[in-house]
Design brief:
about 280 residues, mainly alpha, about 75% helix, globular, disordered C terminus
Length: about 280
């Protein structure tokens, strides 16, 4: 019994850190960005890590709630774009458009998992609170799909720019990236995380201290996103404005749910009545 608890705790700790393992720095130390020459190797490494993560999730709770699995899937999906290196907004975007489209395609997949997991938690949507939270979830999904899809299409915009006779390296300085809306998209991820974490706490699917820590992370994320916007994206971008980092609180909530799931059945309405 003690050994099982130790293994589960170790699995949870590894899962918490797994998506943030510095793949590029360890496997491709000479590369600042993943390029076409190493892309297939990079994907193979990521898939191996994802498979390892799935094994760890089974070790935690193979019969866990669906949202726990979906939220864990967010972290594993977002891991792939996280380590591709800085997004290309210069002339290299024209030579490696597939990598950037793959980056934002994976982020849109993560947003889909967020919506499905969030809807699973909020269902059935009958109360005023659940309807309000569902509205927040839908708005977040739409805003972030727009954010990532517009970035997905950026290589096409740059191609049109160069075909009109303009220099590709001048593109980013002239293009309207709608930074206020993109900041709002990141902030919405933190707000949605707080909403879903609240619901998990109400259902006693996560512990009180996990509820507190995750909300502190979300509040810090919101503050630094605002600071980044106020600086004109010159400061405070890393880490909280990085899309994969903004998705991290929900991923961690999924792990917490898998390690502490079904506590509601054991503790009754105590936590429900105090939150």
């Amino acid at each position: 019994m003690l050994l099982k608890k130790i293994l589960r705790s170790a699995a949870a700790l590894i899962l918490i850190l797994l998506p943030f393992y510095p793949i590029t720095e360890n496997f491709f130390p000479s590369e600042r960005q993943v390029n076409n020459q190493i892309f297939s190797t990079y994907i193979f490494i990521c898939l191996t890590i994802i498979l390892f993560g799935i094994v760890l999730i089974f070790l935690l709770k193979k019969n866990g709630k669906v949202w726990g699995w979906l939220f864990c899937g967010i972290g594993l999906a977002a891991m792939i774009p996280l380590h591709l290196g800085p997004p290309r907004i210069d002339a290299t975007l024209l030579t490696d458009p597939g990598i950037e489209r793959f980056r934002y395609g994976m982020l849109m997949l993560a947003i889909l998992l967020l919506f499905l997991g969030g809807y699973s938690i909020l269902s059935p949507v009958k109360t005023l609170r659940s309807k309000l939270f569902l509205f927040i979830l839908i708005a977040t999904a739409l805003l972030n799909v727009w954010d990532n899809y517009s970035s997905f299409m950026l290589s096409g915009d740059m191609k049109s720019w160069t075909e009109s006779g303009k220099n590709a390296n001048d593109f980013s300085a002239q293009f309207d990236f709608h930074i206020a809306w993109r900041t709002a998209a990141r902030i919405s991820l933190y707000i949605t995380a707080m909403v879903l974490i609240f619901e998990l706490a109400k259902k006693a699917e996560i512990k009180k201290w996990q509820f507190v820590i995750l909300n502190i992370v979300c509040l810090a994320g919101i503050v630094f996103c605002v600071l980044c916007l106020m600086s004109g994206f010159q400061d405070f971008y890393f880490p909280f404005m990085v899309p994969a980092i903004a998705l991290a609180p929900v991923y961690w909530a999924g792990i917490a749910s898998l390690t502490y799931g079904n506590a509601y059945e054991k503790t009754g309405n105590l936590l429900y009545s105090t939150l």
